[in-house]
């Protein structure tokens, strides 16, 4: 039987030839952490009947080519789509052309007509910058975009804050997936995210506090898509 969900993993840790990591002396740990994140993402979303496509390009132009295909792809057979964006960096170190790149990735899915009324979940493993187009008035003025409904965006950090990393690298993807695997059959994504926020806030002594935007208008239960 075919899968009911689709997971995209945008592994952008070396995009444009720059390892987007916080500390050169900690690079091997952070790059290894990205590999661990990919593994746990695949394992977690397989439980919720999703197949996986990894986008792992070394230039922004190549990623944009992939996004153009996503905008036009036919996702009619899927009941939900998730996308994880993996960028390990601090704002002062990241290349300027990548600072708002996760917004471009999200918009590609919003432009797809076959996803208009389908649940969309985004996991942003990056710093949350001070320019968030999804945090304001719905985009009803531009017919090219859909109003961002049926969508939840989960961020590794709070608004305009860096993504804190320690010797364990960033905890966000790991903790979110751990909670989703343990409780996702009974709890909504919103509740899973609230539990993730509380756990990371306590474990890092409030140095990292994830956040999320909820444009779903109801509880998103990934258990509804399991067989």
Number of strands: 6
Taking the sheet with the most strands, its summary is: 6 strands, mixed
Question: Uncertain runs with pLDDT below 50, 5 residues or more?
Answer: 20-26, 136-143
Structural class designation? alpha/beta
**CATH domain class:** Alpha Beta
Mean pLDDT across every amino acid position: 80
What gyration radius follows from the Cα positions, in whole Å?
Answer: 16 Å
Q: Proportion of β residues?
A: 15-25%
The CATH architecture designation is 3-Layer(aba) Sandwich
What is the total domain count?
1
Dominant shape = globular
Can you write the helix and strand succession as a string?
A: EHEHEHEEHHE
The CATH topology name reads Rossmann fold
Strand numbers in spatial order across the main sheet: 2-1-3-4-5-6
The tally of helices reads 5
In whole angstroms, the N-to-C terminal distance is: 9 Å
The helicity comes to 25-40%
Features:
227 residues; alpha/beta; Rossmann fold; six-stranded mixed beta sheet; 6 strands
Q: How would you sum up this structure, described in words?
A:
With 227 residues, the protein is an alpha/beta fold. It has a single domain (5-225), classed as Rossmann fold. The relative contact order is 0.17. Residues 20-26 and 136-143 have low confidence and may be disordered. Helix 1 packs parallel to helix 4 and helix 2 (60-72) packs parallel to helix 3 (101-110). The chain has helices spanning 27-47, 60-72, 101-110, 172-183, 189-203, and strands at 5-11, 50-55, 80-86, 120-125, 151-155, 211-215.
């Amino acid at each position: 039987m075919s899968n009911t969900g689709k997971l995209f993993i945008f592994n952008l840790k070396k995009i444009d030839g720059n390892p987007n990591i916080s500390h050169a002396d900690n690079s091997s740990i952070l790059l290894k952490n990205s590999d661990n994140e990919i593994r746990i993402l695949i394992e977690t979303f397989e439980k919720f009947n999703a197949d996986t496509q990894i986008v792992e390009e070394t230039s922004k132009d190549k990623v944009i080519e992939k996004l153009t295909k996503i905008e036009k792809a036919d996702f009619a057979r899927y009941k939900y789509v998730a996308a994880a964006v993996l960028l390990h960096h601090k704002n002062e170190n990241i290349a300027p052309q990548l600072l708002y790149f996760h917004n471009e990735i999200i918009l590609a899915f919003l432009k797809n007509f076959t996803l208009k009324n389908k649940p969309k979940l985004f996991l942003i493993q990056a710093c949350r910058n001070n320019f968030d187009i999804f945090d304001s008035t719905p985009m009803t003025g531009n017919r090219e975009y859909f109003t961002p409904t049926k969508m939840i965006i989960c961020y590794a950090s709070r608004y305009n804050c860096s993504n804190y990393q320690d010797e364990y690298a960033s905890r966000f993807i790991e903790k979110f997936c751990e909670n989703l695997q343990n409780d996702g059959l009974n709890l909504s994504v919103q509740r899973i995210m609230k539990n993730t926020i509380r756990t990371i806030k306590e474990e890092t002594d409030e140095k990292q506090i994830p956040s999320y935007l909820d444009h779903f208008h109801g509880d998103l239960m990934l258990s509804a898509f399991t067989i």
